[in-house]
Amino acid sequence: MQHRATDQTRTAVFQPCGTCSPTELNWHTHKKGLFFFSFFCSCFILFLLLFVKLLPIYSSFRSIYDDQPNAHKRFMEKLDARIRNHDREIEKMCNFHHQGFVDAITELLKVRADAEKLMGQVTDTNRRLQDAGREVTAQTEEVIRCRVQQRNMATTVEKLQLCIPVLEMYSKLKEQLESKRYYAALKTMEQLEKVYIPRVSQYRFCQIMAENLPRLREEIKDISMSDLKDFLESIRKHSDKVGETAMRQAQQHRTFNSAVAKQASMGHYIKPVYSLNERTHAHTPNGLLMDDDTGDDEADEEILTAQDLVDFSPVYRCLHIYTVLGDRETFENYYRKQRKKQARLVLQPQANMHETVEGYRRYFNQIVGFFVVEDHILHATQGLVTRAFTDELWNMALSKIIAVLRTHSSYCDVPDLVLELKNLIVIFADTLQGYGFPVNRLFDLLFEVRDQYNETLLKKWALVFREIFELDNYSPIPVETEDEYKLVVSRFPFHDAEIEKQDFPKKLPMSQSVPQIYTQVKEFIYASLKFSESLHRSSTEIDDMLRKSTNLLLTRTLSSCLQNLIKKPHIGLTELVQIIINTTHLEQACRYLEEFITNITNVSPETVHTTRLYGLSTFKDARHAAEGEIYTKLNQKIDEFIQLADYEWGMAESDGRASGYLMDLINFLRSTFQVFTHLPNNNNDHASMSGKVAQTACMSACKHLSTSLMQMLLDTELKQISMGAIQQFNLDVIQCELFASSEPVPGFQGDTLQLAFIDLRQLLDLFMVWDWSTYLADYGQPTSKYLRVNPATALALLEKMKDTSKKNNIFSQFRKNDRDKQKLIETVVKQLRSLVNGMSS
Question: Which partner from 132, 577, 690, 706 sits 20 to 30 angstroms from 799, CA to CA?
Fold first, then answer.
């Protein structure tokens, strides 16, 4: 189309006018032919050059668009548009030179006369030129073709240079995605969008790239979120390992500090054995211990941190990706929500956690691992988690932990398990305190656990005390040699100058249970002290805790065991006496227990508000209970003998000797009261102990015997009593009075012990002498001979004798005397009844 327009233009220009002569017409015709030939040659050469130049770029574009639908049609449309552009340029060029051309023709016409001559010359010259320029023309055509190719290649190279960086960046993007370098891939996408693609946006492949970039961003977002989920699952599984490492390091640090403090207290300091490269213990930004070691066994062990145990790169990568994508808030909310869920799962204990210490250790390891990771995230990222968020998590966790420990620790009934739980809580608290978490409530909880620990100790020592009491023979400790004596004294603070002067073999007053009890009390104090260690409390507070727990042991456990021991049926009077001796020595040893506590706590007993041991009251109560049990058992034994009594209440006269049961009873009382001579009688506050106990027991026994005999006479089931029975009963009472006057227990003044039988004596004398007139006359007067005889008692006994007199008709010669006696009895009965009625009114 371009060539046709050019030909028409040139035909119009060389069209001859109507005034031209034939010569001019021939000249014009020849000129026109020459012009068209030259123009055709030029067009042909130009076409060849264009063809040569366009061939490489055509191949390039063909290779690009082969796989595109309708590529050929679009290419032809673009090519036609380019041809039209060139046609317009040619028209503009022709229009620009047309006037000059017309002016030239006009001037040419003016020299028409010389034209033929010139035409011939030109023709000749043209012929010669054609002949001479054929070779040049061929070379020129070749040069033109090469230059066209060169221009086309330069154009293609220029366009490719614009496209190649885009393709390289896109290829780089693919490589980054394949190697999971998502953050770098996002940066590459940003460069493609803002720098490279706009340079070649007219190409279809660039548009395809631009359309793919949002999809790739979403893929990166999904992949990074998947990696984050895998990370959260991983740290949930490995948090116990992280916590175990952190707690072990905290324990090593505490051990080291204790060693340093101990060395400092001894006046010298040794360089820490676990420093590395002259650097001692320090905390990293995430709070883990770095660059140190803590013992000979682990001197070469590498100190692990959270970074060593957990790969945090998914969190960093996902955080950066969401930050670049402008969606950081969504990521932060998701991460915090998931960590809250994991925190609740971590805080849920196993149902059987309280059974073994490993259950508690796993529980604490998981919690420590969780918060170590959170602390690391807090310091290693900018705002992913905040201090307020971690504090909120910790407060929630702390409340749950305290509730769980309260519940599960209440199930622990083994002191060692409670002690190990306490050690775990201390290490747990120290570990998290090193990361900046407040743990005061945990140390407050330890006081509750301490009470639980004391309860388990008390239960354990109750069993120990019971076993000691069951195995004791309740007899003085025999000592054959000095070594045996020193062994006993080393276990129990016993000092007695008189016993020390005795030759071997000899006996110590207390039984074997006394040094054993004393040793076990000390063991209890040591066990209680173990719990007080590492509680960050002062020596005064520890001393106070030890004294309070020891008081509980003495006042509750030991006292209860002693009370139960005293109440056991198989414990006899001899054992009770030995128990009194034992409690006396244990009471005296309480001051040594106070000194023992003072020595291990280094707290002076003169310190204000120092708690005193309540052992004095404990052993006094036990001793009083033993004394009361002695009186009770003694009375029970007396009752057993009384039950053996077999009086013939209707006998005419007595046997002339005391009853056999009563003599056996008196012999038993004599042998029993001899046992009381073994009670301690030292020159101290308890010097009068043996005398008081023996005297009280003897007086109690005599009173009980007197009361029992009186009740025997006044028994309602006993309807008749003869005078012979009264005489026999009087012989038995005389034996009781002789026993009382024989001073079975030293220390009674005068007839104090005989006064226990005074009621019986006056009653029997009244009936034996039959001195009713004196009784009735002196009744109510302080100087009465029968002051202790109650009218009701006398009346009851007299009525039993009256019934006997009515039925006694054996000796008829005494019938008149019997009638007189019966009348006297009736008269006395009436008077006694009047006295009884007067007393009741």
Answer: 706
Distances (CA, A) of 106 to 22, 34, 117, 510, 731: 18, 19, 18, 162, 196
Give Cα separations from 323 to 223, 329, 579, 688, 737 (angstroms). 15, 8, 82, 91, 110
pLDDT at 64 over 90: no
Q: What string of DSSP letters covers 296-334?
A: STTTTPPPP-HHHHS--HHHHHHHHHHHHTT-HHHHHHH
> Can you give the pLDDT at residue 545?
81
Mean pLDDT rounded to a whole number for the chain:
76
Concatenated DSSP letters of 706-734:
HHHHHHHHT-TT-----HHHHHHHHHHHH
Model pLDDT for residues 412-447, shown as the tens digit of each residue: 778 888 888 888 888 888 888 888 888 888 888 887
Q: DSSP 3-state assignment of 275? A: strand
β-bridge partners, 506:
479
Interior angle at CA 592, CA 603 and CA 528, nearest 5? 60
Match 């910790």 to its residue by tokens: 394
How far is CA 154 from its chain centroid?
78
299-303, 536-540, 551-555: lowest mean pLDDT where?
A: 299-303
For 779, the enclosing helix (H) or strand (E) is none
- pLDDT of 24 > 50? The answer is no
Q: Where are the alpha helices (DSSP H) in 497-572?
A: 497-501, 513-532, 539-552, 559-567
Q: Which long-range contacts does 295-299 make (Cβ < 8 Å, 24+ apart)?
A: 295/252, 295/255, 298/252, 298/274, 299/273, 299/274
130: its two tokens = 């054609």
831's tokens: 């008077």
The band of 146, judged by pLDDT with boundaries at 50, 70 and 90, is: very high
- Any idea which residue has 């260690």 for tokens? 533
Q: Where are the beta strands (DSSP E) in 741-815?
A: none
What is the spatial distance between Cα 754 and Cα 748, in angstroms, rounded to a whole number?
10
pLDDT band at 152 (very low <50, low <70, confident <90, very high): very high
Highest mean pLDDT, choosing among 59-63, 252-256, 299-303, 816-820: 252-256
- Does residue 56 have a cis peptide bond before it, meaning omega lies within 30 degrees of 0? no
Over residues 743-786, the pLDDT tens digits come to 787 777 777 888 888 888 888 888 888 888 888 888 888 888 88
Q: Which of 473, 510, 506, 483 is nearest to 494 (CA)?
A: 510
pLDDT at position 140:
87
- What per-residue string of b and e applies to 516-526 under the rule 16 or more CB within 10 Å gives b? bbbebbbebbe
Beta strands 477-479 and 289-290, pairing class: unpaired
Q: Domain-by-domain residue ranges, the chain?
A: 243-260+306-458
